[in-house]
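Our working data are protein records whose layout never changes between entries. Getting from the letters to the tokens is the skill we practise here. To make this concrete, we reproduce a full record directly below:
***
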Amino acid sequence: MSYRAQQRQAAPPNGPSQSQSHELTNLDANGSRSLESQSGFLAEVTSVQNSIGVFSANVTRIGALNSRALDALRGDDAAIKNELDGLTAETRALSNELRDRIKRLQAAVLPGVPEKREKEMRQNQVALVRTKFTEALQTYQKVEQDSRNKSQQRIARQYRIVKPEATQEEINEVIASGQDQVFMQALTSSTRYDQSRSAYNEVQARAQDLKKMEQTLGELAQLFSDMALLIEQQNETVAAIENTAIDVEKNAGEGLKQTEVAVGIARRLRQKRWICFIITLIVVIILAAVLAVELTKK
């Protein structure tokens, strides 16, 4: 089931249900789910996982449509290609949406989350959805690569129909450049016209498919790059927080040492004050005794 079809099926006819109303309370002013609370964060994680499931289902369908398009007879493949183009565009939009939502989830991992346990939970959840999405992208990449290889093999077979003695280098050049001079030359020969014309039409169709596949593979490569960047950014953020924690602990240790030194100094000062007080008291007693003796003599 495609992403749009799932949305249509999930939409209730008479307004939002009680559970959907509860979800709406987690939406911010822009219509996105608020990620500040733990419940809002987990709800978004679940929603992203569901969307990844839809993305994977679309990829499976795209692979099947690619195979059908290759096997379809000329004139019967228009409907298949229209469905394939629509599903590919829909999946492209969904992949970009998932990338942006995962970015939002990762950005909500640390800021404003005081509890270490909750931070670790959020980090683990983001790593989970990021891994699932990357695996889905890898599957999509393999589907497109397999379809591209089959299309290239089909072009090679059609080229050899027109020019059986063609070398692999010539075939690779035709695939890479889309040149059709050989077919046009073969069309001028009446003995091979029908066969060459059919091969030419087949190659034209496959060349258009290859361009679309190359575009999709380029977009997937960019998404892989975006996911790798997210991992790097998270590692840098975690490392910075760990370094800050180490610095805080170090500064706290230094502060404790300074406090202990200050306490020791204060203790020694108190001891010295008591010693001075005792010495002063002894001197006073001695002076009082001497004064008393002198007064007694008089």
Q: What stands out?
A: The first helix runs from residue 3 to 10.
